[in-house]
Amino acid sequence: MNPASLLVFDVLLLLSIVGLAWASLATTDVRRSVILFIAFGLVLAVAWGRLLAPDVALAEAAIGAGLSGALLLAAAHRQPRLLTPESTNAPRNHGAAGAGVVLRWAVTLLCTALAGTLAWALLHVFSSTPHDMLPGAISANLAASGVSNPVTAVLLNFRAYDTLLELAVLLTAVLGIFALGQATPGYQPAGPVFDGLVRWLVPVLILTAGYLLWVGAHAPGGAFQAGAMLAAAGVVLRLAGRTDTGLPEGFVLRIVMAAGVGVFLLVGLALLLLGRPFLGYPPAWAGALILLIETAAMLSIAATLLLAFLGGQPESTGVKAAADRQREEISRC
Amino acid sequence: MTELFLLSALGLMLGLFLGLLRVLLGPGVGDRMLATQLIGTAGVGMLLLLNVLLDQPALLDVALILALLAAVAAAAFTGQQQTQHD
Amino acid sequence: MLTTQILYALTGCVIVALGLRGALLHASLLQRIVAINVMGAGVFLLLITVAYRGPGLAPDPVPHALVLTGIVVAVSATALALALARRLHAERDDG
Amino acid sequence: MINIMSAILILAGVFFYLAGSIGLLRLPDLYSRLHALTKADNLGLGLLAAGLSLHSQDLFIMLKLLLVWLAVLAASATSAHLIARQARRQETGS
């Protein structure tokens, strides 16, 4: 491979990344900013692929370019008023809206200084002799981890604590969203062309989720990417104007939301009872346990991301809605 | 063959920059969204080429997901939310 | 020390600075959220660059796992921030 | 022989892609730009995928490449339709 032309490719890729980031933040038009941010995510996915990080590229393609983009676009579409400076009519906000030239320059200077410091620190890291202890330890223990994809091994075995806590963070975020208000209103039917797309896209997304979950054991993929694909299927249904996005309701929804953390904890505690360290899988069982945890985590992540897109508790349609209405009537009497 | 793949990737990169210009110039939001679609296709193409160049078969999956989710952003962009309470 | 690493790392630093500047200076809540996401992407770029070992060599999987976690946490934090912004909007309209 | 075929297909794909991007940049209004995009997506990526599947000569990879192309095709057709409809809606002011 000719390194010189790959270098040209790298430079152009990085220029487009910086250009998109700058352009996305230089405008005050919210929708333009969000569209540029989506393009930024698309190019970033290519950069992850270029840096031999296909796991991250998968997540970026599914979440960074897809779900975050849809989330931000829907918000920009919904409330252009709140999100543009004109709406900040309260007097205390005037300073922020028309930040003085001095302030602007001071902040710019500070950020430049930060970038310089970061760059200096990183160059220092790169020029020192590489410490290969951690990657060495991982490849030495990979055979006993139950999976052969090193990233999955780190996430679900060597650093399983981190992933458990991350799932707890996701759960907390959804509970926070629930506490803040109701779901955003549904969408109008999107018409026959988009319906035609939905008819094949949703099954393909669900199939892809299953494929990514399974393949995560030995190749890039795993619960996070699979969960994002499932959530994307729900988002597509929602955008097409369906009220039913495949989310369960009431008690079952709560179980699905907590499944990731719950199964993870149960496995950890069961192992403690069996006299092993918390989440220290016996090598013979590791593969199966990881698949079990990942399946539960995928369902939780999918529910979390879809609820995040809805922006609150979904309006219930079935039995629970009827019960709620009844309760309301009783309290009115 | 490797040279050809690299050259093609650079060609797609050139197209991406042209799309970038359209994203920056606008003028309408629709134009920008359209150019973002073009950038997405360039991304898919580059991932297909990098998959061979860097010998990373998983990049095919990345390209597939990028392609599958391309329509989601457009739908979110054009979707009309029912006006109930805001 | 690889030229690729230096290039990507410097870009990461620039993105972090751009994102931080945007988050501090923008008046619009949604644009601040976008700016924080850009800043996060810069941090991810730095981490992935540190993991990169050169062509044909297996990169360090630990930063990859960190970034994977980071992407998912970032999107849920974004959703929470958007819900918060929506609530602020509703409150301001009432009051 | 197969290498030459695949090279021709890939180069043709890049050519059509570039033609599409130039069209997107040079054409005067949104609707004609929509037209340019389909060149890039349908033909450009299709030829590129065809060239790469000739190169790989692996049935599984060929199927995946076909799937990628079909996904891009359907997604770009749908989003082009949605964007055009949105633009019409704004023009007619409803």
Structural class of chain D: mainly alpha
Please give the radius of gyration of chain D in angstroms.
16 Å
Distance between the termini of chain A: 79 Å
SSE pattern of chain A, N- to C-terminal: HHHHHHHHHHHHH
β-strand percent of chain D reads: under 5%
Count of discrete domains of chain A: 2
C-alpha end-to-end distance of chain D: 57 Å
Low-pLDDT parts of chain A are 82-97
Q: What is the alpha-carbon Rg of chain A in Å? A: 23 Å
What top-tier CATH class of chain D fits best?
Mainly Alpha
Unreliable runs of chain D: none
Q: Give the overall form of chain A.
A: globular
Using the coordinates shown, work out and report the CATH topology of chain D. Answer: Helix Hairpins
Reported for the largest beta sheet of chain D, the result is: none
Task: Report the average pLDDT across residues of chain A.
Answer: 81
Explain what you see.
The complex is a heterotetramer of chains A (333), B (86), C (95) and D (94). Chain A is mostly helical and 333 residues long. Chain A folds into two domains: 10-85; 148-333, no CATH class. Chain A has helices at residues 3-26, 30-50, 54-78, 94-97, 101-127, 133-141, 150-158, 160-180, 192-215, 223-239, 250-273, 283-310, 319-332. In chain A, α7 crosses α8. The radius of gyration of chain A is 23 Å and the shape is globular. Chain A starts with a helix and ends with a helix. Chain B has helices spanning 2-25, 29-53, 59-68, 70-78. Chain B starts with a helix and ends in an 8-residue tail after the last helix. The model of chain B has no long low-confidence stretch (mean pLDDT 83). With 94 residues, chain D is an all-alpha fold. Chain D has a single domain (2-92), classed as Helix Hairpins (Orthogonal Bundle), CATH 1.10.287. Chain D contains three helices and no strands. Chain D is elongated. Chains in contact: A-B, A-C, A-D, B-C, B-D. The interface between A and C is large, with 98 and 76 residues.
Based on the model shown, name its key terms.
heterotetramer; A: about 325 residues; mainly alpha; 2 domains; 13 helices; about 75% helix; D: about 90 residues; Helix Hairpins; about 0% strand
Short structural summary:
Chain B is mainly alpha-helical and 86 residues long. Chain B has helices at 2-25, 29-53, 59-68, 70-78. Chain B has a domain at 12-69.
